[in-house]
Amino acid sequence: MPVHQPAEHQIGDDGLVEHRILHRLDIRCPEGLAGLRQRLAEIGGAARGPVLVSHEDHTPGQGQYADRGFGSVAEFPTTTAAAKAAREHGTPVVMGAPNVLRGHSHNGDASGRELIGRGLVTALASDCLPSGLLSAALLLAEDGLASLPEAVGLVTGGAADVGLPDRGRLAPGLRADLVLADRGRPWPVVAAVLRAAPGGDAA
Questions:
Q1: Which residues on adjacent β-strands are paired with residue 11?
Q2: Which end of the chain, N or C, is surrounded by fewer C-beta atoms within 10 Å?
Q3: String of b and e for 161-191 (b: at least 16 CB within 10 Å)?
């Protein structure tokens, strides 16, 4: 679609741009930005509303809501420059566990391992492979790209920082969700999962 104008079917009866295609609108699209500003104002912004994710950013300032104060999270930036720009703006950067396990992006985009080595990644996401989270963390530690606490932090505290502040760390007042696992090759073996039940006790 033209970068300056959403298609008619993408604008609702209320005049707002359909939220499902906002992530595809370049910052040069005034209609998209206006609709986004209006919607965020209605729901109270990132402080009270949903997390706004800027997906697969390429170049800072092009398609990257994160570096213009819109995005709460930069998910899967495709270049080092985009990841660096997001971090310079204090925006969390999330990469996919499969990217880390492969050692590179499946389509030639930025390598999660390289970005982690540069200190530009704050969290790992499953990216359709939940079993890959723990494996990716352990692999990063084994390969010396992060210490074991740092690597595990990418799938616990770092991931929770995206929008789940009540969990992700072992600290007073937070949910005590625990995973007991044994290192294995290529996949770690999870022996037990303990999660906080309503009221704070383990279930």
A1: 17
A2: C
A3: bbeeeebbeeeeebbebebeeeeeeeebeee
DSSP secondary structure string, the chain?
A: --TTS--GGGB-TTSPBPGGGGGG--TT-HHHHHHHHHHHHHHTHHHHSPPPEEES--BTTBS-GGGGT--SEEES-SSHHHHHHHHHTT--EEEEHHHHHHTS-TTS---HHHHHHTT---EEE-TT-TTHHHHHHHHHHHTTSS-HHHHHHHHTHHHHTTT-TTSSS--TTS---EEEEE--SSS-EEEEEE-BPTTS-B-
Length of the chain: 203
- The tokens for 49 are 């509303």
Local confidence pLDDT in tens for the 203 residues of the chain = 333 344 444 444 444 444 444 444 555 566 766 776 777 677 665 454 556 677 666 665 544 544 455 557 888 888 888 889 888 888 889 999 999 999 888 878 889 999 999 999 999 999 999 989 999 999 999 999 999 999 999 999 998 888 788 889 989 989 888 999 998 877 899 999 998 766 555 44
